[in-house]
Amino acid sequence: MDVGGTYTDLAAIGADGVITARKVLSTPDDQGVGVVEALRALGAPRGAVERFVHGTTVVTNLLLERTGARVVLCATAGATDLLELRRQERASLYDLGAHHPAPLVPPELVVPVPERRTPAGVQQALTADGVAEVVREALARGPDVVVVALLHAYEDAAHERLLADALRAARPGLAVVTATEVLPEIREYERTATAVAEGYARPGVARYLERLGARVRDAGFPAPAVMTSGGGMRAADEAARHAASLALSGPAGGVVGAAAVLRAFGASDALTIDIGGTSADAGIILGGEALVEPGGTIAGVPIALPRVLVETVSAGGGSIAWRDDGGALRVGPRSAGARPGPAAFALGGTEPTVTDAQVVLGRIGGAGMSGGVLLEPRRAHEAVGALAAALGTPPEATAEAIIRAADAEMARALRRVSVDRGADPRRCTLVAFGGGGPLHACALADALGMPAVLVPPYAGVLSAVGLALAPERREEAMSLLEPTDALDARTFRAHCDALAARTTGAERSWVVRARYVGQGHEVEVRAGPGDAGPEIAERFAAAHLARYGFALPRAVECVALRHVASNPGARVAFTRDASAAAFDLRSRTDHGGPAPTAPIAGPASLALSDATLWVAAGWRATPLAMGGWRLEREGAA
Amino acid sequence: MSARERARERAAAGAAAAASTEVSERLELSVWASTVAMIAEEMGAVLVRGALSPNIRERRDASCALFDAEGRMVAQAAHIPVHLGALPESVRAVRAARPRPGDVFLLNSPWQGGSHLPDLTMVEAIADGDRVAGFAVVRAHHADVGGMSPGSMPQGATELVQEGLVLPPVRLERAGVPDTELLALVLANVRTPEERRGDLAAQRAACAAGAAGWRSLLAREGRERLGMITASLLDYAERRAVARLRAFEGAHATAEDALEGDGVSEHDVPLRVQLAVRDGALHLDFAGSSPMVRGNVNCPIQVTRAAALFVLRSLLDDDVPTNEGIARAIHIVTPDDCCLAARAPAAVAAGNVEMSQRITDLLFAALDAAGVAVPAQGQGTMNNVTFGGAGWTFYETLGGGQGASAQGPGPDAVHVGMSNTRNTPIESLERAYPIVIERYVIRRGSGGAGAHRGGDGVVRAYRVLAPCTVTLLTERRRRAPRGAHGGADGACGENRLNGELLPAKCRRELVPGDVLEIRTPGGGGWGPERGAT
Fold it and tell me: Which domain holds residue A504?
């Protein structure tokens, strides 16, 4: 289940692999109500559901609204202001008064710890007196959670553990988080900020999962598992202890679902675009898997944990079109959202939106929208007409231009995720989903020179499908600062085994984060028991060449070792439902049932469940036996 | 049909065509702006992911831009304000060298399109068949380009040739064929040739990405229409700038400031500007500013222009596209012999980093005096710190306090003005160099008091573990960042070696155990402090 701000999407996978999908309106005041309603809408009998996975925005909301726990931070003396110093960059290049969001821990809640490690070893030992003083100071500040983050502790966390044990002994039951248990990697700011986010969100996540769990269990469903930012599923009790890894739970599901559909389709590399009411998420799939990388920032807080790479731009169906003081048409970043929504929704919105432009051009039919919203095309014409009059331009041309402006923003986001990773869009399929994805698909493929588009089955609820499919996934990591030429197979195997012993899972894999000596950025390469330094260096050079276009005659060093233990997710059979209504040629509606035999040439608008597909002039749409559609340019082989 | 009727008909047809051009312009401007910005952005991505040195990869001391065949800048992806608007000068210098399609130039001479020597600028003359269709430009600050001190940011230089290898626009490639001898010559004159080779390769890849993007745009739109699009985008940016300046029409004032020594002597280097907003344009006359000085705080005119452009840019909304149109709203006059329009053979390394900061301070002061709402002064320096020992060099710049404004307090611990580079993580630094960071904290209370407080500076203390030389190029060590509208001044910066005060600009030999502490300036406060009389 994907709980969004406007809609709650649900996808159920039966024992036979068949998917059932539902979309209901969210209940923002108490998400649990909507969740239970959606589960009931499924009509599954009590006890019939084996597993329930959901994507949650609870951590995002805690960070955005700054409503998390009171955290006391214990940091190495002399480096107590890391959260305020950040990486020194200003909030805006040209807006000189702009501030970064305030740190999650204000300076008065930071306690200096009299200790110091350097790369050469312990320079100042943490004494018993020092520990006692820090414990006293920390507890005096009335913490919900204490986070201990010390310099160079990724090499040896003895001081962090010493302090954490003393804090727990002094106040049994106190939540204590050490930075290296969250992220045992070099770079003090990112590690400290991530650990603080973990402490800040943990109590709120636990409360949320308990409340939701009770309600769901009462209704006869299993405890809710949660999607992590890395595209894996964790049981509720584990998720509560990995709060920071849920920060980007929401958008990960869509890319994971897209990857599953792409594999069934028989392709391996793709860019993905998930277009909703207020924003569009661009993602990337390489080798059939959603690209997972550490990094990402939410509400000014960097979370340096693995996450499914997603670039979000504020362009969606609700983006508002306007005229600026240079006389130009502009679209967004303001959005009409779900309330008041596009003018055509007749919910009080009067400003023209991208959706209204689609209505004016007849690309979204007169039929109803998701969640029972009825369209009033007249209101869309009025709103777009008023803007066209202000600009002195014809209404239809204005509507087309509104859509092109939104397309341009989305194309830029797609470009960014591909070029930054060295992927060429011209060799990728575009997977377009979400309520608005299929509407913009042809234009985006044209802008990026992409040869084909895949509109997946269940395009409107693909994120929920991704959640249902997600494998159970646990990650463990350790710092491994070692030149590859000093790393023998025995030592490396010992490290791999040590990480593996910390967790459970049927499938095991390891990645080494490595770089050329002296570089500041790492590249991840697969490795495992049996490998030694030279293999890792070789794979690193190949990966560097593929991604950056060159390799160097230079020594390679490892930075960290990460381990992923997973259990496969649900098996799914993508297929058209023979029992559903066949494609309606007159209204061009695809109910997911038997498909038409011939491709449909553009320009044409096809109604899908929970989405609309726009086949632009010069394109043709071919229905797929697995459900969904393939779009290609006319004349393409 | 009479001749007159025919003429009238032609005129009517022309007017209709013009009107329809205008319609498409109004509707498509944001799409065009986004399209060209995307190409520049892509160049930046290619550069940053390919570059070797931390200064480009991590601190992002680099900029990319696209120009049309006439040398007009269509888009720029700038991470660093000091590169703003300075790149057209590079293309002008390259065009004077009669580029052939596919030629790739390298330059850094401040007298021919460069800024200071470490900024190596690469310019590709984009080939479209047998004509040059435009220019892709990538400027990046290299960690060393030779000269008298490691890092090529010397203190005490008095001639340009002391600061490093000087390159007028020279061809690294002729019609796509690399000149390996020239590259070998360049690499033979720098301290870290392999790192330079890697960074130049990344610059080359970024130029190629820009050229490919521009060519595909050309193929899609056609030469004539692309020319029209370029003209529209520049006009649009100019319109937005002029619309903003019109709000201050008639404003005028004079302001003065000074640099604290030129690196050779401690004497002030006075600056003066007469500012006027007239006919929607910003007129700046620097009469009364110091002649060229002996040390290396001089700057070529394009750095002065970049500072002016940054100040104007900060008055505009963030979404105004960055192209040459904005610069049309700025008119600059300097005296013949002026440190703000330096000529050969002056030394300029510090002008780019410190003089540029002082020019922005000067212009903001003039705007404030003219009644335009701007923040109080920020730290006004980049606090350049360079260490050099046996086989290693390390360069970084430090943030400080931003000035407060009518809207609120000044941000703490950031770069203000013409830089926005990131800090070096303590853990990375300590692993790479024989240095321990003893303290890296906010310098509490260093921001000026006021109704809105100025931002605080930082304290960074380095204990060195090996013999080395340290070079400091800093400012605002005796002339504090000024408060505005009754707000107090920010605290001056301080440089200390084992507790002893050091000059703002100096070079010292350090022995193991020595502690260098840099305390960066706070920003000025805004408005009288509540309760103060």
Answer: 472-567
